[in-house]
Amino acid sequence: xxxxxxxxxxxxxxxxxxxxxxxxxxxxxxxxxxxxxxxxxxxxxxxxxxxxxxxxxxxxxxxxxxxxxxxxxxxxxxxxxxxxxxxxxxxxxxxxxxxxxxxxxxxxxxxxxxxxxxxxxxxxxxxxxxxxxxxxxxxxxxxxxxxxxxxxxxxxxxxxxxxxxxxxxxxxxxxxxxxxxxxxxxxxxxxxxxxxxxxxxxxxxxxxxxxxxxxxxxxxxxxxxxxxxxxxxxxxxxxxxxxxxxxxxxxxxxxxxxxxxxxxxxxxxxxxxxxxxxxxxxxxxxxxxxxxxxxxxxxxxxxxxxxxxxxxxxxxxxxxxxxxxxxxxxxxxxxxxxxxxxxxxxxxxxxxxxxxxxxxxxxxxxxxxxxxxxxxxxxxxxxxxxxxxxxxxxxxxxxxxxxxxxxxxxxxxxxxxxxxxxxxxxxxxxxxxxxxxxxxxxxxxxxxxxxxxxxxxxxxxxxxxxxxxxxxxxxxxxxxxxxxxxxxxxxxxxxxxxxxxxxxxxxxxxxxxxxxxxxxxxxxxxxxxxxxxxxxxxxxxxxxxxxxxxxxxxxxxxxxxxxxxxxxxxxxxxxxxxxxxxxxxxxxxxxxxxxxxxxxxxxxxxxxxxxxxxxxxxxxxxxxxxxxxxxxxxxxxxxxxxxxxxxxxxxxxxxxxxxxxxxxxxxxxxxxxxxxxxxxxxxxxxxxxxxxxx
Length: 694
Ligand code: ADP
Ligand code: ZN
Hints:
Rossmann fold; Arc Repressor Mutant, subunit A; 5 domains; 50% helix; globular; binds adenosine-5'-diphosphate; binds zinc ion
């Protein structure tokens, strides 16, 4: 029998399984039932697709969303697997054909919606079925967040195929739902596979209290610094989605909006356009995203604080499903809390909602690793900080904040705790604004007592005092700042407090971006994406079905010269190489050729044993240029001994300085910091070694 890992390579083009995938596949091949809990993007599909390919007869896949079904079927079909879907959106003759193919055992997987399942049960019973996979299995449970009555019928289906394995898949973590799924689907002694909810490829960042204008500028700079990539901006209100979209379009970023107030046909068109990369950014309410399976969303921005961590996690989870580095940024404002609490004020279980909002706030306000907080919410505990959130990137430096705190607390008390954050800052800075004079705030003793800090700095300090519990916001009373008992103790000098220093953050200089794209050839990326888009239109499938983002990236990095070299590219199975390989190679040759040949020449001379100067002389290039070639070749994985060009001591020098400069890739700051002692090319060599591409 052909091994699962061979199919993973030959059909899907991947080298190794992710957590639990192989075990689940083996389990299915042994005809055992299973309940699989995996986060969005964890790679559920392969778990039933590979056993389906191996088993002789048909696998039924029950999936709730017709749009999702179509995309999934197209994705796997592009890898050369015979599959079909069957639902109410098809014409009679299309359906007839699918039925014929199913009866004649010409397809490996048949995707069905639960509704069609019920109406088709008679002919389905006639089929030779080897396995049943139930996607989004939480839909069977009333406890789940997306109950669908039709799902209850799946248990019925089970009775007809008693001896066939059933695999249920869900991303829902909670225990009641899990138990319910097992019962409602009549799973037989199912093994439960739980994957980690950690999505290490998603970076996490939070920006608090950023005024609208600044936020707009920041977001535009962020998007532009990322180039042509797909992203989602989630907003609380319909109006905001339209505002954002218009703003982005006016800044030359192609964007559309999406919310429940639009006619269904228009919504579908917008969604379709996003999936097909006909524009880059979608500005949407949380109504958007349920039915989409776009693997190359590179970033998700939240314009407001979400109402709970479950929702937030699901929304950011729509980024980076292909496993490539992707970014998430949450903008929040204390006003959002008021809005969210307002939405639920009539509810019987208001307290529960409030608690959830508070947990969300904890994430937003954290001054320790954010991923730890997220995962702890789902009951997982990381043993180390993640290294991929804004806090880990630049851990706050704490300073003695007692005097700062006393000034703020005292000013708040002297206003009789009747002001919000911004007005308090104005009082501290001695600003001459209308509301100050109207409320006679210029008369109080602490007016202007904090002139030494800027508006932003004060805002930051006060936010931190709220986090640390010295202030409390009265959400039900115009967001006034109230002094807590901790605040009182600080004010009286009975308690000292440390505050994180204020730091200006620059979102455009994300280190992830630089490290991930450092080696990729931009011309090749652009050309491949353009080609991919044309192919996609021709074949009427989304662009990522033709070529995943990570495949594009790898091709641009390794510039494969022939079909054989293409086999090393992740995400390219045999069928895709056969269909598209020649075209891809010719794009690489056209766009990347100059670079290949010059590097290749240097490599050949290096391999023949020449020294740096000799290569330079032979090629009539400077030795700096040759050294740069060698660095690039080294980064591509070629065997180059960079230690010939630098001493251990010099590497350590660069390491120390670079750590201080938050691991920059820029040479000049390092050069300056070392007072010009080390030439630029040595710094490059050191960085290549330190980043350890081997
Ligand atoms: P979900 O669990 O959300 O259904 P998918 O099955 O759609 O996730 O998989 C998400 C992405 O991960 C897809 O682009 C898929 O091709 C990719 N993927 C799945 N398994 C692997 C693997 N073992 N190696 C690399 N990529 C994988
Ligand atoms: Zn972290």
